[in-house]
Amino acid sequence: MPFVEIGDLRTHYELTGDNTQPVLMLSNSLGTNLSMWDTQLSELEKSFRILRYDTRGHGQSSVTPGDYTFEQLGRDLLNLLDALHFDRAHFCGLSIGWHDRHVACNSRAQSPPSSGVMQHGGPHRHKRDLERAHRNRTQRWNEIGRASCRERV
After folding, report:
1. How far apart are CA 71 and CA 63, in angstroms?
2. pLDDT per residue of the chain (153 residues) written in tens, 0 to 9
């Protein structure tokens, strides 16, 4: 089982598929691990080299002290890509994994390393995307909550 150690974090990952294909990085949702993608793996490997990893505090990745921030999780995924020497990757995340991508794009645009991983759109576009997503999600949660309360009454 491969791991990358950067600072206080030991990240578990799996890299599968044809190394001539573009890399697709898969980020797990809250409370899961990289195995959440098992069902999709064979289909995705037809077109991509797959990099799955356990998000900080999940699966076999280390649990570090303190609260975790989206910025920290976004930097974790960028550090993994850099440690594996990938200069670009497609990204797919579910739930919290989706947020990691937006933070990573924003972080990379503000302080790009030697590679150009995930740098597209710039920080202002991604900030607007996050703000819009937050408003939409909050509105949906409120609607669901109100509907749930009406059903109980």
Report:
1. 16
2. 799 999 899 999 999 999 999 999 999 888 889 999 999 999 999 999 999 999 999 999 999 998 888 888 888 988 999 999 998 888 888 775 544 554 455 444 444 444 434 433 344 444 555 566 656 655 655 555 555 444 444
Q: Which strands sit side by side in the sheet containing 90-93, from one edge to the other? A: 3-6, 9-16, 49-53, 23-27, 90-93
In sequence order, what E strands does the chain have?
3-6, 9-16, 23-27, 49-53, 90-93
Q: Nearest 5°: phi and psi at 6?
A: -135, 115
Can you tell me the distance from the alpha carbon of 10 to that of 4, in angstroms, rounded to the nearest whole number? 6
Say if CB 106 and CB 127 are below 8 A apart: yes
What are 119's two structure tokens?
């740098």
